[in-house]
């Protein structure tokens, strides 16, 4: 690709009247150079079993090619047609909530033989139809694929085979998972019950891991089919999503992005985020860092919002700010869900780039400026490469483990809350990060690794983290790290188990804090922010120095936060859940100790700085203003060229960044 992809999802099948040529003309005027099609409309392509009609696909392909707009074709497998369910009711996933009911999308059992038969058939028929079309630059596999909690009898049998392959004997399973508790042990594989109702966290978490593997296998299976047809130079991608809290929030519980992305040429993601006064850019950055880190390369944003909901309709300038924020994190594509607002059905009020009148509007006009700038600046700002010194280790297994064993029964806080507590404060400090996972091998490429709530981890991973510190690395471990092995068996040593070696601290007791704060306010925050909440470990240093103690008449003898020199490195251990203000201070101390603190960290939110090296080997720096207030800064870097205006900028020059705006500089 020679330019940034700027696109939309386009569904000719949803249009209330004929307007394909009008849409294309408006796309060209907006600088749209790619559309995604086909992945949502299986029932149009196969209205009856074995009856195929790709008229809508072909007419869009032909029209787009004539206009010079590229096309990404999706496999239409994530929403099954009615005839399939009528003929094969068992294609609907049986979950812990009972049999599935038809209506919504993504309700099928992705292991069901009938579903897989029809899915392969529609993929092959579609690929046979489109494979030679010159408009196509790539293919998207399925859509936001997950396992949909499929848990029916056939899935349970597959899980038993998985357990047999892994543990060989029921006795080995019983011992590792502690199934003797409440007479749950199994003495013959044929006696293995459905795990839907299990009370054993080890077994339940292993089933979740197995379900995530079903996603890996399903996606790899589709990739294998599409590879038989794709032409040289065409990519295959997928649009992964994140934990959803009304917007993209954290690590996806039902997919391991690092393993599921392996068969794809390019990782794609869907990133939705708060807008208007709530726009911070954090979700854009978080989702981008996850996507980029899966392959350590640039990625696609296959879906993000244009207007969407009434509380997301962007203020003037925010659509541009959002688009360039994606690029600054390493995106080579920004595409909207979707081109037009549809006029009926479930997503009627999830508005597209065009409103329901399908006419130009202020958001569309702003999109035109993005398209023009992307075209003009592509050679400068695409393929940006990053060499980050800081990494956050994320773990699907720990996320699952802590869903079984929560911080306490009264809280809704979960693993992703702690990940975001750390990530958000790094972001506000202008620290760019990679996201690594338990199997990441090259830890020594980082100066600082932050390990949030690594509740579930094999000995080998903890030993590697110890070695990282001993060899000169800096690490921050939070509470609940090192607690259990890979099968959620609690270690029998004092906690935090194996990482005591690097952290120099032990504890045996943990409590729910009430009216607890840090003694002496060591991080010099407001009194209201000096509190500990939800979870605290009563730490006793072995070799560590105490960085903070608890201020409480019952717990005052115990440490709350410690730091330990180990080998050539240094490990910080945070034994409690602290405020965002304290977390920011802890991170700042660690960054300075690891020699990561620099010019960017002297500025902070709402000014956000992102950097990357372009194809010419030059550093590109983005300065974003996520606020209603005009921001003025003294430019701290070498002589540069401001790319939007083509003006020279010198060190010490005053830069003014308007509300919800940005500037892009190429360092000379």
Would you kindly provide a written description of the structure presented here, covering whatever features stand out?
This protein is α/β, with parallel strands linked by helices and 668 residues long. It has 3 domains: 5-147 and 214-381, Alpha-Beta Barrel (TIM Barrel), CATH 3.20.20.80; 390-595, Class I glutamine amidotransferase (GATase) domain (Rossmann fold, 3-Layer(aba) Sandwich), CATH 3.40.50; 602-667, Sandwich (Immunoglobulin-like). The strands form 6 sheets. Strands 11, 12, 13, 14, 16, 17, 18, 20, 21, 22 and 23 form an 11-stranded mixed sheet that branches. The radius of gyration is 26 Å and the shape is globular. The model has no long low-confidence stretch (mean pLDDT 97). GO terms for molecular function: beta-galactosidase activity; metal ion binding. Its EC number is 3.2.1.23. It is an enzyme of class 3 (hydrolase).
- Mean pLDDT across the residues is 97
How does the major sheet shape up?
11 strands, mixed
| CATH domain topology of the largest domain | TIM Barrel
- Fraction of residues in helix: 25-40%
Oligomer: single chain
Domain count, please report it: 3
> End-to-end span in angstroms?
25 Å
Report the β-strand fraction as a percent range: 15-25%
The CATH architecture of the largest domain is Alpha-Beta Barrel
Going by CATH, the homologous superfamily of the largest domain would be: Glycosidases
Principal-axes shape call = globular
Count of DSSP strands: 30
Number of helices: 17
Radius of gyration: 26 Å
Note poorly predicted spans. Answer: none
CATH class category label of the largest domain: Alpha Beta
Judged by helices, strands and strand pairing, the structural class is alpha/beta
């Amino acid at each position: 690709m020679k330019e940034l992809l700027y696109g939309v999802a386009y569904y000719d099948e949803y249009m209330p009247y004929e307007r394909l040529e009008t849409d294309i003309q408006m796309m060209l005027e907006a600088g749209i150079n790619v559309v995604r099609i086909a992945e949502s409309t299986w029932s149009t392509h196969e209205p009856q079993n074995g009856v195929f009609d790709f008229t809508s696909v072909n007419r869009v392909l032909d029209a787009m090619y004539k206009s010079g707009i590229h096309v990404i074709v999706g496999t239409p497998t994530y929403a099954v047609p009615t005839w399939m369910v009528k003929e094969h009711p068992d294609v609907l996933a049986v979950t812990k909530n009972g049999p599935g009911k038809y209506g919504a999308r993504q309700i099928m059992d992705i292991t069901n033989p009938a579903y897989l038969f029809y899915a392969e058939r529609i993929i092959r028929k579609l690929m046979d139809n489109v494979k030679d079309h010159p408009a196509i630059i790539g293919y998207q596999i399925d859509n936001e694929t997950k396992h949909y909690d499929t848990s029916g009898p056939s899935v349970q049998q597959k899980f038993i085979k998985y357990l047999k392959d892994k543990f060989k004997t029921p006795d080995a399973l019983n011992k590792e998972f502690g199934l003797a508790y409440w007479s749950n042990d199994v003495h013959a594989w044929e006696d293995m019950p459905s795990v839907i109702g299990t009370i054993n966290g080890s077994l339940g978490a292993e089933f979740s891991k197995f379900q995530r593997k079903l996603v890996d296998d399903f996606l790899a299976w589709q990739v294998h089919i599409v590879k038989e047809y794709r032409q040289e130079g065409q990519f295959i991608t997928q649009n992964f999503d994140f934990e959803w809290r009304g917007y993209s929030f954290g690590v996806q519980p039902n997919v391991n992005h690092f393993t599921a992305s392996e068969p794809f040429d390019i990782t794609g993601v869907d990133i939705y985020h708060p807008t208007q006064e709530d726009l911070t850019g954090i979700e854009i950055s978080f989702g981008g860092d996850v996507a980029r880190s899966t392959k350590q390369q640039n990625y696609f944003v296959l879906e993000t919002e244009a207007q969407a909901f009434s509380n997301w309709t962007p203020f003037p300038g925010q659509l541009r700010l959002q688009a360039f924020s994606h690029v600054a994190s390493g995106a080579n594509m920004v595409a909207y869900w979707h081109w037009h607002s549809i006029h009926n059905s479930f997503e009627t009020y999830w508005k597209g780039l065009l409103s329901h009148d399908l006419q130009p509007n202020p958001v569309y006009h702003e999109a035109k400026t993005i398209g023009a700038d992307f075209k003009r600046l592509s050679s400068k700002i695409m393929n940006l490469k990053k060499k980050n010194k800081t990494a956050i280790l994320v773990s699907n297994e720990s996320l699952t483990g802590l869903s079984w064993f929560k911080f306490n029964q009264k809280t809704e806080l979960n693993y992703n809350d702690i990940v975001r507590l750390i990530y958000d404060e790094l972001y506000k400090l202008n620290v760019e990060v990679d996201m690594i996972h338990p199997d990441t091998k090259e830890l020594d490429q980082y100066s600082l690794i932050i390990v949030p709530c690594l509740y579930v981890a094999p000995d080998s991973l903890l030993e590697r983290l110890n070695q990282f510190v001993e060899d000169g690395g800096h690490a921050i471990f939070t509470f609940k790290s090192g607690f259990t092995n890979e099968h959620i068996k609690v270690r029998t040593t004092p906690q935090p188990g194996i990482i005591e070696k690097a952290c120099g601290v032990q504890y045996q007791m943990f409590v729910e804090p009430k009216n607890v704060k840090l003694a002496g306010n060591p991080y010099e925050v407001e009194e209201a922010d000096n509190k500990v909440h939800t979870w605290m470990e009563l730490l006793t240093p072995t070799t560590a120095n105490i960085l903070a103690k608890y201020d409480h008449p019952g717990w005052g003898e115990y440490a709350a936060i410690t730091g330990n020199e180990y080998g050539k490195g240094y490990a910080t251990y945070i034994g409690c859940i602290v405020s965002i203000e304290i977390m920011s201070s802890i991170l700042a101390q660690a960054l300075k100790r690891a020699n990561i603190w620099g010019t960017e960290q002297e500025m902070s939110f709402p000014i956000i700085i992102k950097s990357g090296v372009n194809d010419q080997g030059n550093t590109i720096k983005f300065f974003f203003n996520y606020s209603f207030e005009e921001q003025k800064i003294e430019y701290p870097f070498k002589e540069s060229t401001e790319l939007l205006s083509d003006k020279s900028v010198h060190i010490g020059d005053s830069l003014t960044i308007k509300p919800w705006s940005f500037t892009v500089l190429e360092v000379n």
